[in-house]
Specification:
The complex is a heterodimer of chains A (212) and B (311). By secondary structure, chain A is α/β, with parallel strands linked by helices. Helices cover 42% and strands 25% of the residues of chain A. A six-stranded parallel β-sheet of chain B has the order 2-1-3-4-5-11, with helices on both faces. In chain B, strands 7-6-8-9 form a four-stranded parallel β-sheet, sandwiched between helices. Classes of the chains: A alpha/beta (212), B alpha/beta (311). Chain A: Keywords: Signal.
Chain lengths: 212, 311
């Protein structure tokens, strides 16, 4: 009898729950997010996280370019362990945040995929490419961020749009140089993916300054 | 019935009746699309070999991209009390339910090649970095085209995320070059025969094309056959997958390039994660993982064998 009363009381408690639909409070926001395109959502994500999350990661992991080259020459794995960032998984390449200064040997600034070649060791030959954008290749910036995890995104398509949105955000934040920059000194901070030690890094800059 | 066959049957009966004695670690079900496409065959072979090395019994099944068939196969795997399921799935939406059903039955799923639309149901989803791979293929295509000329894109099956992601990787590169003009873009549903037919028609309407970029290797093979038949072996064709067929074509200066997906290794890696999960309750990896692709040209084609590159 006691037990029956108790279960009746429990049932009474549960019934209203069964009758009404629980609506999560964030539903309206989620619905508008769904209605937007992948591009728009990922652009918003890049915007929202830029100052609070992306820039601190950059600041924390920046290594001097010459110092990194030395470390890479000794061992890619130990250089990666010490300075690199990469998503978990098998055989993912390392990404590095580097800063440095060098002389511009070549520049193509009127393109949608604007680029500068920079000599870092004074031999007159280009050692790195700075991708000025707005079209920037690769996923270095996205893949260097420890807080960005593929599992949190719907699929590869959305994740690719995120990489592109991050690159576009980096471009939007740049002081894009104008005029003839060849021969001038440029200081930069940026991220690149190391696919092989012999390959010239294609850096996605988060800051550049052409010195007069 | 000869003696040999009878013995074989007896052995089979014994192994299925007493799987725990013959294979201490239990059963791993390996479910993929049809082995007619060597890519899926390589996956199945890779997964099976690794599972056996690790002491598992295997059950290899083919769903032919039919979600109903796939669903039945999940029921079979559940009924057989599989320890894990390795899956290259039959649709990003349609696969959510069977993977959930297996999970509810206590059987973890490890997905390869294709994603599903939800996370938190499968233990692992290991896919090729199609975006990165497509950009590699597109860069090579642009170079081969001399940054200019009319071209055609053959797309994969629309329901498959990989079709969309490769196309967007291609265009993120190619669209930077205003002198490259796409004169036709059609789906040939990953199929060689369909690509052959589509290519014939496209070629009639656009006899001046200079290049074809294809969402996979079987379609590239179909397109190349149509181009050969029309005497247009001057057309630049680039594929995606890294099949032995395309490798041979590259070495004969037919198709110019493809992008290797490490399908064999990917399948083995999925089995290793399943093994670790079964034994420790964790794979030590995030659910969704990307594996980088490698550009294949005449320079490294000879090192390619069954979706793996030797050093």
């Amino acid at each position: 009898m006691h037990a029956m009363k108790l279960s009746a009381a429990l049932l009474a408690l549960l019934l209203p729950l069964g009758g009404c639909k629980l609506v999560p409070t964030d539903k309206p926001a989620a619905e508008t997010a769904e209605a937007r395109t992948d591009e728009a959502r990922m652009a918003a994500y890049a915007d929202e996280n830029w100052s609070e999350k992306v820039l601190p990661v950059i600041a924390e992991h920046t290594v001097d370019y010459a110092k990194l080259r030395q470390a890479l020459a000794a061992s890619v794995e130990s250089a990666g362990d010490e300075y690199g960032l990469r998503p978990e998984g098998e055989a993912n390449p390392w990404n590095f945040v580097v800063s440095g200064e060098g002389q511009v040997t070549e520049a193509k600034l009127d393109s949608r995929a604007a680029k500068m070649q920079v000599d870092m060791n004074g031999d007159g030959k280009p050692d790195v490419t700075l991708q000025i954008g707005p079209i920037i290749r690769g996923t270095a910036l996205r893949d260097a961020m420890p807080f960005i995890v593929f599992t949190d995104f719907r699929d590869q398509i959305e994740f690719a749009k995120l990489a592109r949105a991050m690159n576009e955000k980096a471009h939007a934040e740049l002081d894009v140089p104008e005029g003839d920059v060849v021969g001038k000194t440029v200081a930069f901070t940026g991220v690149f993916t190391l696919r092989s030690v012999d390959e010239q890094p294609e850096i996605v800059p988060t800051a550049i300054e052409v010195k007069p | 019935m000869n003696i040999k066959r009878r013995l074989l049957l007896a052995a089979f009966a014994l192994s299925s009746a007493l799987p725990t004695y013959a294979h201490a670690e239990g059963l791993i079900a390996i479910i993929t699309p049809s082995h007619d496409n060597p890519f899926f065959k390589a996956e199945a072979v890779g997964a099976e070999a690794r599972a056996k090395e690790l002491g598992y019994e295997t059950l290899v099944l083919v769903h032919d991209d039919d979600p109903n068939k796939q669903s039945e196969m999940f029921d079979t795997a559940i009924a057989r009390g599989a320890a894990a399921i390795i899956l290259d799935n039959a649709g990003a939406d349609a696969t959510v339910a069977p993977v959930q059903r297996a999970k509810d039955a206590g059987i973890p799923s490890f997905l390869i090649d294709r994603e599903i639309k939800e996370s938190g149901i499968a233990v692992s989803q290991i896919v090729s970095n199609n975006y990165q791979g497509a950009q590699l293929g597109a860069e090579e295509f642009v170079k081969l085209m001399g940054e200019a000329g009319p071209y055609v894109e053959l797309l994969g099956r629309e329901a498959d995320t990989n079709a969309g992601i490769r196309s967007s990787g291609y265009h993120d590169i190619i669209d930077q070059y205003p002198d490259l003009e796409m004169v036709a873009q059609q789906s040939a549903n990953w199929s060689q025969t369909e690509a052959y037919e589509k290519m014939e028609t496209i070629l009639q309407a656009n006899p001046n094309i200079k290049g074809v970029i294809s969402g996979n290797d079987t379609m590239a093979m179909g397109a190349w056959a149509a181009l050969e038949a029309a005497g247009r072996t001057d057309v630049i064709v680039v594929g995606f997958d890294g099949s032995n067929d395309v490798r041979d074509s590259i070495m004969k200066d037919g198709i110019k390039a493809t992008v290797l997906q490490p399908a064999y290794r990917q399948a083995q890696f999925a089995v290793e994660q399943a093994d670790q999960y079964i034994k420790t309750g964790s794979t030590g990896q995030p659910e969704k993982q990307l594996m980088d692709c490698v550009l294949i040209t005449a320079e490294n084609a000879e090192k390619l064998e069954t979706f793996a590159l030797s050093n």
